[in-house]
Specification:
274 residues, alpha+beta, Beta-Lactamase, Helix Hairpins, five-stranded antiparallel β-sheet, 5 helices, 14% strand
Amino acid sequence: MSELLSSFCRVAEHVPNLMTGRVGMAVCDREKWLVCNCIKELASSVVAGDPVKAGSAGHKAMEKRERVVVEVAKEVYGVPYIAVSLPVIEDGNVVGAVAVHESLERRDTLLNAAQQLSGSAGELSGSIQSILAQAEELAASGRCLKDMSTEATRQVGDTDKVVGFIKDVASQTNLLGLNAAIEAARVGELGRGFGVVAEEVRKLAVNSAGSATQITSILAEIRDSIARIAVEINQIEAVAEHQAETIQRLTAHSQSLAAMSDQMARMAAGTESK
């Protein structure tokens, strides 16, 4: 037996204790297993002195003359497992191989976790897109409401001008009615009918002035309501901005989760770069 194979045989008992998880180690020459410190699933199948079967990691490493990472099928030794094997080469010749193997339990656990993580990342991404669409709708509604509030404020201002004009007309009409009543009284019996008309004109002026005052009061309440609406709109805009910032953070987290799940899947499959 070569010196290098002998060295691997001496450490085969100890190397698995340096690993995390359930790991075994085996050493073979060109034909048979020399030392087998295997996991319990393989303990009765891979035995020192037994021939190295085609399809095993050690056999493939010797065939390819390079490091291999393989998932050994159940048909080879009765249970599937994953292994890393190196050929042992001396003077240009392959004299054997060393293989470190572990149960697929860890790989399957990682794959399941990666799949769940990927699913969660997908759901999170979908939720983020939904929230983003709602935030955009909210922002659009806020802008529309703000424009409507501004327009309503302008229209109330225009209405104030109309009410002011009505008040001026009422005041002048009242003054004209008063003057007409004075003239009717001055002419006596001949101005009685004119005096009745003048009194009605004054009543109309008073009623118009009262209505204008009521309109002014209502417009003031409308103006206050518009001001409160404007405050709420500003709050909506603040909420929309906060949502946008939150969505950006969630998007970054979602991308991190997706990358993490992909990395876990590659680690489980044994394709993670060394």
